[in-house]
UniProtKB/TrEMBL annotation:
It is a multi-pass membrane protein. One of its GO terms (cellular component) is plasma membrane. This is Sulfatase N-terminal domain-containing protein. PANTHER family: LIPOTEICHOIC ACID SYNTHASE, PHOSPHOGLYCEROL TRANSFERASE I. Keywords: Cell membrane, Membrane, Transmembrane, Transmembrane helix.
Length: 609
């Protein structure tokens, strides 16, 4: 009997050691993935530079592991599910860092059902390998849960107690950003949070620290002087200013927003040269109208955030850094959010969103409904579905034809918001022959393929604007690229200022030619300025909100976290004079009022006139 007790003690000891080793190894693996598979960096992070944070992360992983073991009723089954989860998470983090230069956020886990997109991003072989392993692990885990129902009563009591404790702990950990959270306080003792760069934030504080930092949080910090009276003062001030503009026209032109996937000029970057310009057709249009460079929040991704800024005229820079994706984290929870859609709907416009892809990406179906679009045309409902050669995405030419149908078939003025897909990654295997050849520092094949992509996109845009000239109703177009493609080598990135990796092309086109002669090549803007700039340049009646933004744009023409353009130069920090600060703070006050405050401004006509 003593021998049996001794064997059980040894068994329990081995299980305990195994669990500890597994949690430490898994945290090392996550950090290894975060650091680009550099073993030396991982070792120094864990046992030299940031030991306290590393073992805090290990404890949190231990809680998660024990939760899975209790849920499955088996240490072996729970550990297997845990291992698969960590391996997939680490791989996803490495891939996202490689393509988009940003880590995996908690909110990214909502994208787990986007199997088609994941397959495109990582390739067929890794995708199907991960899918098979995950399906097998889940099946085994579910079988384990079923078997656990027949465990002895004593074991069940231990299991349920463990489950209650771990669920409670995980729930508490999920409130990491609450002021009095003990785990946050422990991290704060040694953490060096870097809000403006989540990549560095994860690097300095560990994958677990960075991941927890990006859990749920209030959208914005409350401005110091926020009150009903202050909002009333701001709204009245700018409503009066907007109504004082006597030069506006009462016409209702068609308005078209086109966000072109990854549209940008590779030759804007040092280290990239081509035998000819793939954007020649684009510049044929841009050089005759108001155009320039747009500051994108992200490199290699972040499409939904740029779209959010363009439609709402609210800035990502003003949000808390953990508010990484408003489309999934904020908008669906709001009862009402003012935007160019809601403004034009007040003026009897028909509003159509077109995205020739699936409806679940970034919860677009819910978001577009919340914004007030009358209809959403996706890849299953679009009439024109032609693709170019072997490109898996519906072509820009087809998407533009869908837009033209909206203009022809409706008697009301139209607002059409198009998000294209033709130039989306991957950038290989789409075309039999490439008409462009680059001289570049690394990744030449992807760059050459991308240039072929943007050539077709440029050509389609030029043809589209030529057809628009025949449309009777005045038609205004705002066209922009959402971000650069994540294809440029480290050598190219080193040869360029960081802001150069965030600059895309934009233009505003008028089919009646009323914007001709406004083509200053040095225009620099942010997407949240598009709507107020369009209204001002086109002579349309602005709102109080757009009046505020127009005045701010003359002082601070472009800004995102870490990139501020004012006084004709870029800076990493926001340093404002008195006038600039007053405008910036008024804008921040209004945005807070809508996304996190009492929405006092919605009870006025600030967003309507």
């Amino acid at each position: 009997m003593k021998q049996g007790l001794q064997n059980k003690k040894v068994q329990y000891l081995l299980i305990t050691l195994g669990i500890i080793v597994l949690t430490i190894a898994s945290n090392l693996y996550l950090q290894w993935s975060q650091n680009g598979y550099e073993i030396d960096l991982v070792w120094k992070f864990a046992f030299s530079w940031h030991t306290e944070k590393f073992f805090l992360g290990c404890f949190i992983l231990l809680v998660f592991l024990l939760f899975l073991c209790c849920l499955a009723g088996s240490i072996m089954t729970g550990s297997l599910m845990y291992a698969v989860t960590i391996v997939v998470l680490g791989f996803a983090d490495y891939q996202k860092l490689f393509y988009r230069a940003e880590p995996v956020y908690p909110d990214d886990l909502k994208m787990i059902t986007e199997l088609g997109l994941m397959r495109e991003m990582i390739g067929d072989v890794p995708f199907f390998l991960i899918l098979i392993i995950t399906v097998v692990a889940i099946a085994f885990f579910c079988w384990g849960i079923y078997k656990s129902l027949f465990l002895p009563k004593k074991v069940q009591m231990i299991r349920v107690t463990g489950l209650i404790l771990t669920v409670g702990l995980l729930s508490y950990i999920s409130n990491f950003n609450s002021p009095n959270n003990l785990f946050r306080k422990e991290f704060d003792k040694t953490a060096s949070w870097i809000p403006y760069s989540q990549q560095m934030n994860y690097y300095n504080n560990g994958f677990i620290g960075g991941f927890l930092y990006n859990l749920k949080v209030d959208p914005m910090a409350k401005p110091k002087n926020y009150s009903k009276e202050k909002i009333a003062e701001i709204t009245k001030k700018y409503i009066v200013k907007s109504q004082g503009n006597q030069t506006v026209t009462s016409e209702k032109p068609n308005i078209i927003f086109i966000m072109s996937e990854s549209f940008s000029n590779p030759q804007n970057l040092n280290g990239v040269k081509a035998d000819k310009n793939p954007l020649a057709n684009y510049y044929d249009v841009a050089d005759k109208t108001y155009s320039g460079k747009m500051l994108s929040q992200n490199y290699g991704g972040g499409t939904a955030n740029i779209e959010f800024e363009a439609l709402t005229s609210f800035s990502m820079e003003l949000f808390n850094p953990q508010m990484t994706t408003p489309y999934t984290m904020l908008v669906p929870k709001m009862k009402e959010i003012p935007s160019i859609v809601s403004l034009l709907k007040e003026q009897d416009y028909q509003a159509t969103a077109i995205h020739p892809y699936n409806t679940s990406m970034y919860k677009r179906k819910d978001v577009y409904n919340k914004l007030g679009f009358d209809r959403f045309i996706d890849e299953t409902t679009i009439k024109y579905t032609s693709r170019t050669e072997y490109n898996p995405y519906i072509s820009d030419k087809s998407a533009y034809q869908e837009v033209l149908d909206r203009l022809e078939n409706e008697s009301n003025p139209q607002f059409v918001h198009l998000v294209t897909m033709q130039t989306h990654m991957p950038y290989s295997g789409k075309y039999v022959n490439l008409d462009y050849s680059s001289t570049s520092k690394g990744n030449k094949a992807s760059i050459d393929n991308f240039m072929q992509d943007v050539f077709y996109s440029s050509k389609a845009l030029k043809e589209f604007t030529e057809v628009l000239k025949k449309v009777n109703r005045r038609t205004l177009v705002v066209f922009w690229g959402d971000h650069l493609p994540g294809i440029y080598s480290d050598e190219i990135k080193k040869d360029n200022e960081e802001v150069s990796m965030h600059e895309t092309e934009f233009l505003i086109f008028d089919n009646q030619g009323k914007l001709e002669g406004q083509n200053k090549h040095d225009n620099i803007t942010s997407p949240f300025y598009f709507a107020p700039t369009l209204f001002k340049k086109s002579g349309l009646q602005t709102t109080g909100f757009y009046q505020l933004l127009s005045e701010l744009s003359t002082q601070v023409p472009a800004f995102e976290k870490g990139f501020y353009y004012k006084d004709n130069q870029w800076s990493k920090d926001l340093k404002l004079n008195k006038k600039q600060e007053e405008l910036y703070e008024e804008y921040r006050m209004i945005q807070y009022d809508i996304v996190a405050g009492e929405k006092y401004s919605l009870k006025t006509n600030f967003f309507k006139e």
